[in-house]
Amino acid sequence: MGDQCSLRLIRVCQALSTTELELTSPCQELHQVERSEQFAFTVRYDESNIRDILAIIVGPPGTPYELGFFEFSIKVPAGEIAVESPGTPSTDHSSLDYPANPPTVVIKTTNRGRTRFGPNLYANGKVYPSWGQWFLYMSGIQHLAHHRRTWHGERGEQWSPAQGLESVLLSIQSLLSTNPYTLEPGYDDPNRANDVENMETYKSKAMIAPLEQAFENSSRRDRVQAATETFLPLLAHSAADAVDSDDLYDELGERRDFSPSHANFDDYYKRRFLWYFEHYQIAIDKGITDEVRRPGDPFITMPFEFPGNTMMGEWNYVGLRTRLLDLRDKLMEETHRWPVEGMALLEADAGIAVKLKGQHAQILAELSAHTQIMDFSLVDENPFLWQLIYAGRTESRLEGGIIKIKIYISPRHPIEQPRVFVESPIYHIRVSRLGVLIYLPSHDEDIKHHIDGIINTLEEDNPPFNPLMTVHPEATALCWGSEAERRVYRRKVRASLEEM
Questions:
Q1: Share of the chain above pLDDT 90, in %
Q2: pTM here?
Q3: Could you tell me which residue ranges the UBC core domain spans (predicted)?
Q4: Does residue 365 share a domain with residue 258?
Q5: Contact yes or no for 7/1 (Cβ under 8 A)
Q6: Same structural domain for residues 318 and 391?
Q7: Residue range(s) defining the domain that contains residue 374
Q8: SS3 assignment, position 406
Q9: Of 7, 29, 42, which Cα lies nearest the Cα of 268?
Q10: DSSP string covering 334-380
């Protein structure tokens, strides 16, 4: 499981009363998630109804789901459960109050209800348990009432109020497994001869399908302004009702169940696509080079898959590479349109243009004492395109280097976050071959925090390893490799600085 340390929620204090727990702690917990320095997931919610949560979990590194985007609805229960029969309360659980009882989880990444991304992640959105995974007893709460399911889980598999939302997110992430085939009951022996080939095939299917899904959705969303796009209103359908009906999906092909109208992950997808572009490209190129599957060969149906709940498709790495490059070009075009749109706003004396100019002037004054900053200016006096020239700090790995950086700011900031490109040809673990810089602002609303994040990233000589913070695979392998490899990394960094 990749980088579990970054998947953290602040535990709700068990000493709080029920009223305090409902009114304060969940909201504080979710605020903490939004402000935490983590990359493995993000959440969206409405503060007026914090029981309906949307989460994106990034596929854990080292699994077939690596760096894919998977969206889940998490509905925190409240009130009384439906009775088993008229006038007769449920004998097992008479209340659905949280945290006494677990949330309900629905996967929304389903390719319009047609794709089962794993044994436990059904095409109709249901998330079912694998034996031995205690958390997913949550399926048995509302789904038992609705479907009369009989599985209650073993003692160690059932929900406990002490587990909380952190357990929910970690358990969901555990379903994005290194070998998802073995999560299907009865197929959990990785050494059974007749399953070995199926396991490898299923891993490949699980990898290519989320990539296609992520690229397709992002390509369509690229044509929609993030400032105005919202999901359509929540329907009255249950998550289990009419799952194949078109009215359960919006115009982008996403499920509408439990979707807060404010939710918008477009910018999250786009920024991470630019960060992880080379990882995707390497995976696709490997598929083309290995030629294990011929283009056009259909996906093999697994023994536990059945019509309406399978992962259908065909192998087409060449076509996928074309789509990958096309999406990269679209995102770069969009980025370069921001200053053009911004100049029009500046001429119209729009509020955001005035605000950004003021922020730049204030940050410039604060940076005047920073000896490493050689230039901090607006390109062509455009407040939506900033230039930062940084001189490598003495006795650091970047000593002697002059690093030129462009900061593109969206007219829809902070809905769309800045995109930062290093124009100098530096070899660095935090700079992709596209020049995209990955960094962590402490707060995403104020550009000052972005500038601080950029500088801190450049000045950090020995950052801790985080597989979700890697945008240059080759440099990463060297930087955290053997001693000999680390020496090669340092030489390559120095050589790139000397070329500036």
A1: 33
A2: 0.76
A3: 21-228
A4: no
A5: no
A6: no
A7: 349-498
A8: strand
A9: 42
A10: HHHHHHHHHHHHHHTT-HHHHHHHHHHHHHHHHHTT-TTEEEEEEGG
